[in-house]
């Protein structure tokens, strides 16, 4: 009898666990719908977030008269769907142009989201920190492969997928970052983040296989880069 009760208890726990797992799974929609969700969620993000004194993203509080939401800072949407926001008075002068194959030093807090529709309200959900050098090492990341992957990596990779740039690079991030200029700062310099780039999932990894950067799949995930380019060097 005790074994019977034990079996029933374990079965109940397993069933509850399965149900929870099913609830946590975000239903897949068709690509066109996901693209529309991404666009709508990005616009909502611009309307609900602002910069703090160091350029970090914060939730916009309407009653806080010191805050200026991103949507009020003339965000630019590129034909591809990438959105970027230039933070006023936080740009290098004159700065250096950023080339598509440059070696960059990047200080950033980057979060990835899935745009979903819940009860008719579309928004970014399921946040996951992709990079945070500010809270981490405190020094900029050097030559990230998601901006430009070295040719030597492709040449020495095993498997057809791993030999493709799209397996590593976030296309929309590269496109957006080249709209900014780089500083010429020492790694130890205090940060003053210069802007935001929002990359819709179709210009990140969409539903394709990709390099294992963080231990999770980036399927249908958009990226929000909050960053400062400390330095750029031609490769």
Structure description:
The chain is an alpha+beta fold and 235 residues long. The chain has helices at 2-24, 31-48, 151-156, 171-177; strands at 49-51, 57-59, 76-77, 83-86, 96-97, 103-118, 121-132, 141-142, 181-182, 195-199, 221-233. The chain has one domain (29-233): Chitinase A, domain 3. The chain has 4 helices and 11 strands, in the order ααββββββββααβββ. The strands form 3 sheets. Strands 3, 4, 6, 7, 8, 10 and 11 form a 7-stranded antiparallel β-sheet that branches. A two-stranded antiparallel sheet has the order 1-2. Strands 5-9 form a two-stranded antiparallel ribbon.
* Largest sheet descriptor: 7 strands, antiparallel
Rg on CA atoms, Å = 21 Å
CATH class equals Alpha Beta
What's the end-to-end separation, in Å?
72 Å
Structural class: alpha+beta
Number of helices: 4
CATH topology: Chitinase A, domain 3
**Total individual domains:** 1
User: pLDDT average, as an integer?
Assistant: 91
Structure summary, number of beta strands: 11
The helix fraction, in percent, is 10-25%
Strand content: 25-35%
SSE arrangement, N to C: HHEEEEEEEEHHEEE
Shape: globular
| Regions with little confidence, pLDDT below 50 for 5+ residues | 1-24
CATH architecture: Roll
